[in-house]
Automatic annotation (TrEMBL):
Keywords: Cell membrane, Membrane, Symport, Transmembrane, Transmembrane helix, Transport. One of its GO terms (biological process) is dicarboxylic acid transport. The chain crosses the membrane at residues 7-27, 47-71, 83-105, 154-172, 231-250, 348-368. One of its GO terms (cellular component) is plasma membrane. SUPFAM superfamilies: Proton glutamate symport protein. The keyword DNA-binding does not apply. GO terms for molecular function: symporter activity. Its main location: membrane. This is Na+/H+-dicarboxylate symporter. It is found in: Cell membrane. It is a multi-pass membrane protein.
Length: 416
């Protein structure tokens, strides 16, 4: 755990330095803020790209090995069913918490924002119009494994890997054993790479935070103080619910899990990318005692179907925009919106700023001006920090819970 603590401390220091450097540039050199932001953001880009480089091969090798080693199709179906039940329940709870709290706190009625035009949200408005059932199917089923690898389409890689793993499991040990052994070695080599790449995380955090503070400064927090306060309060309630359920399932081991994933949580918060911590999360969950077959099967699925923070934000932001425009929605309409969000949000996992795209599409469907998304764009980066960290927590709990239910959670931590 010593290395883990050093990384955690280094990220905290980088976070503080990033805020300080970005604030100094914004105050003393405002004319240089844009070019400074563009250049220092490269540190974050380097880190994210290093992580993205290993996500596809890691998901593919660990998932294939995990399923091939299961060899029992009934076990695969059982684990998959438990995981999907968790994902659906957690998504509904997250959406409901967002809906309930935005109606109670009414941030849109209190916050006084000027109605903006749609120019700032033009790209999002275009993206949302193209989403359909056809796009969902295309997004889920790969046309080519190599294309899925090249574009880091996790859901498509998961679909191919499950089919390939099941085929290997039914091929017979004589044929499958050498392939499984090779993929197992590759997976361990990639996990070794994770250790090296994670030491770039503090630089990535520094670059990401300094860039956004240099451009926006601290004034933005005054304008959106009520919106941010209410959103993070809602996130806090969601965390409380998730941790309570986690404690009921894991008992005191929940605190050990939180210690294990503190660095991934902080990296996701700082870089606004839950994807950036996927390899590290795999490593830490296996060290926590989760069976590697369960981790390699559930975690990639969770990254596509179990985004608790993003789900809560969708109902919260959609109703907030309606409140800003003075549109009162009946309870029946809001419940319908919740169910629509539940279905449509599963279709664009991996799409950049996916939750915003879904919000725009939902607003259009329910007669809320979709250009209202421009109202929350200025502060979205900071909301995304909370969303990303919550997504990581939700997936860590889901994987640990299913491992426990399957009797596949070791009491003593493992070393990977």
């Amino acid at each position: 755990m010593k290395g883990q603590n050093k990384l955690f401390i280094a990220i905290i220091v980088a976070l503080i330095l990033g805020v300080g450097i970005g604030g100094m540039v914004h105050v003393q050199y405002p004319e240089s803020a844009e070019p400074f932001s563009k250049n220092i953001k490269l540190l974050g880009t380097v880190f994210i790209r290093l992580v993205q480089m290993i996500i596809a091969p890691l998901v593919f090798t660990t998932l294939v090995v995990g399923i091939a080693k299961m060899s029992d199709i009934k076990m695969i179906g059982r684990v998959g069913t438990k995981a999907m039940l968790w994902f659906i329940t957690a998504s509904l709870v997250s959406l409901f918490i967002g809906l309930m709290l935005v109606n109670w706190l009414e941030p849109g009625h209190v916050t006084k924002l000027p109605i903006q035009d749609a120019a700032a949200a033009e790209d999002l408005l275009k993206t949302s119009k193209s989403f359909s059932l056809e796009d969902f199917v295309k997004h889920m089923i790969p046309k080519s494994l190599f294309e899925a690898f090249a574009t880091n389409e996790v859901l498509q890689i998961v679909v191919f890997s499950i089919m390939f793993g099941v085929a290997l499991a039914n091929l017979g040990e004589e044929y499958s054993k050498p392939v499984v052994k090779l993929f197992d070695i590759i997976a361990h080599a990639i996990l070794k790479m994770v250790g090296y790449i994670m030491w770039f995380a503090p630089l990535g955090v520094l670059g990401a935070i300094a860039a956004v503070v240099a451009v926006n400064g601290f004034e933005i927090f005054k304008v959106y103080a009520i919106y941010l306060r209410d959103f993070f309060f809602a996130l806090g309630v969601l965390w409380l619910v998730l941790l309570l359920v986690g404690y009921l399932i894991l008992g005191n081991r929940l605190f050990e899990l939180l210690k294990r994933i503190k660095a991934p949580l902080l990296i996701a918060f700082s870089t606004t990318s839950s994807e950036a911590v996927f390899p590290k999360l795999v490593e830490e969950l296996e060290k926590f005692g989760c069976n590697n077959r369960v981790v390699s099967f559930i975690l990639p699925l969770g990254y596509s179907f179990n985004l608790d923070g993003s789900m809560m934000y969708m109902t919260f932001a959609s109703i907030f925009i309606a409140q800003i425009y003075g549109i009162e929605m009946e309870l029946g309409q809001q419940i319908t919106m919740l169910l629509v969000l539940m279905l449509t949000s599963k279709g664009i996992a991996g799409v950049p700023r996916a939750s915003l795209v879904i919000i725009v599409a939902t607003c259009s469907m329910f007669g809320i001006p979709p250009e209202g998304i421009a109202l929350i764009l200025p502060i979205d980066h900071f909301c995304d920090m909370g969303r990303s960290m919550t997504n990581v927590l939700g997936n860590a709990l889901a994987t640990s819970a299913v491992s426990k239910w399957e009797g596949q959670l070791e009491n003593t931590p493992q070393e990977v």
